[in-house]
Amino acid sequence: MPHNCFSELKLFAFAALFAALTSTAATEVVNASEELPRLRADLAQTSVSGLSSGAYMATQFQIAHSSIVIGAGIVAGGPYGCAESAASRLAPFWFTAVGYNLTQALQGCMQNRLSAWGIPDAKALAKRAETFSDGGRIDPLGDIKSDRVYLYSGTADDVILPAIMDKAREFYRLAGVPDGQVEYVRDGKAGHAIVTMTEGAACGVTKAPFLTDCDYDQAGAILKHIYGNLTPPDNASGVFTEFTQKPYSKGLSRHGLADNGYAYIPAACRNAAGCRVHVAFHGCSQGYEFVGDAHVKGAGFHRWADANRLIVLYPQVQSEPLTNPKGCWDWWGYTQLDFLTQKAPQITAVRRMLAALSE
Hints:
The protein is an alpha/beta fold and 359 residues long. 30% of the residues lie in helices and 15% in strands. It has helices spanning 14-20, 53-64, 86-90, 94-108, 122-134, 162-174, 218-227, 246-249, 267-271, 288-291, 294-298, 345-358; strands at 46-51, 69-75, 148-152, 182-185, 194-196, 201-202, 211-213, 239-244, 260-265, 276-281, 310-314.
């Protein structure tokens, strides 16, 4: 993901599969020593978005921390918990369980090859989220009922099929998000990519850096749907900041985070408290090590930041030869089997980043 070669893989053995997908990082990242600045951000107005694995992570973070997240933009993703297989819950041993999850992720949560077996089952996934909520492992699920959700599935996307996004739409309905708070775009002509006004490949083409020029400001559409009326973009006079992610992963085992992350910080947010934060999760093979700053600077979220007192956070995961060769966010359990709740390493780390920005 986002390469459609994933959907063609023969899943004979877990280790062999990962080894076959090993790739070399394209861009060297210079280590940053500074942590995120303390800006007294308003965490109660946090929003999230993402493409592909980033879309799945955006949903996972939204559900885990629904008390602070007010909206999500899901581009080419699927329903919460889609890849958590029944087999992994019956035999919760990481190495074997994650193999079952990966099979389900590829065949049932990207392609629609397990529909005859009822996968994805939006009703069961909503029930799973309710169970986590009742057990205190995520914020109360009822908090999501006030969220605003943007969903997008491009007609040329053959990586995550529209039928999977339909299940994401059904999940949100079953979780209690009213229809009037959901914008679902299914007629866009994009491939597997974030859609822009001018950046990236020709409209309908899927290739790195997974941005596509379809004359559509998707970043703006997401932010306006979540936050309502926004001031049109002005000159982007803020600063792209590279920061070390190490303090936010401290004590977390097998977290998969890269050494550095990025943030766009308007000058107004350095000078006065109360800015909102939007977390933009990259897709597979779309992090800095693969495409440099193409996603960070090309997705378009920062264009809206200065005029609307919005900090944009771009956390980063890194590739690992055996467990995560494409640098994906964890939506199938490669970090640990508890990858959907507040205890998940990547969810924990990003929540710590937000806490730092709010100090």
